[in-house]
């Protein structure tokens, strides 16, 4: 039973990852191309300024894979594998929740679990640390940025589990509607405080030391020593649409997993009943 649930989770996750790749390949990849062009042009402008100032030139190195390989085979492989992993994780959580679901139907439970995982694994962390195209993000802050994002995911998951536990406890004393509202409000307040406490990426020590006091790592206009802008800041429209399409791609992944499991719920219940029957006999 457990292996069949996890196997279906892997397949649905891989399907969701494939559809997310098709969506991103059509809408997000052109933005990534423009971001890479922007980054290349900005690096050239920075090198010209450094050369004029007599600073040593950095060796930019060569890429192991071409841009076409990264955008097609590499991107599709990464999203399908990521989707399969999320599908397997969903299946484990769904199986554990199914044993304590009470009056919640298996179909409703599938949608609730997928919605909860989408909320905690992507939506809430992205409100503080949103997805960025290639030109945004400094190499020297890669480790602290990764740690902060993973920390947001862990805190979000723990807060949601605590909110669900609180809601179940309150439901025994209050009506379900009031219990759900109190639990949701508690989760919102906790995550709002966490977002206020954690630093914005632009305020990391390395960024303040090298680039000044900005809220984000989004490239600002590049200026020469006299203050004249020699290269513009990153285009705001591209940044907005990249984040929008990243959100939509994740929504596609979790929608496929949640709806797929909801569709399979009657079959999973039949499998479970058929396994329990010989034991009962």
Q: What is the compact description of this entry?
A:
The protein has 281 residues and is mainly α.
Number of helices: 8
**Unreliable stretches, pLDDT < 50, 5 or more residues?**
none
**What structural class should be given to the helix and strand makeup?**
mainly alpha
Distance between the termini: 19 Å
Strand order in the sheet with the most strands: 1-2
Number of domain modules: 2
Helix content: over 70%
Number of strands: 2
Rg on CA atoms, Å: 23 Å
Largest sheet: 2 strands, antiparallel
| Outline type | globular
Relative strand content: under 5%
Query: Could you report the average pLDDT, rounded to the nearest whole number?
Result: 89
Question: SSE order in H/E notation?
Answer: HHHHHHHEEH
InterPro entries: CbtA_put (IPR012666)
Protein name: Cobalt transporter
Keywords: Membrane, Transmembrane, Transmembrane helix
Description:
By secondary structure, the protein is an all-alpha fold. It folds into two domains: 166 residues, no CATH class; 79 residues, no CATH class. A two-stranded antiparallel ribbon has the order 1-2. Helix 1 runs antiparallel to helix 8. It comes from Nocardia yunnanensis. Keywords: Membrane, Transmembrane, Transmembrane helix. Pfam families: CbtA. This is Cobalt transporter.
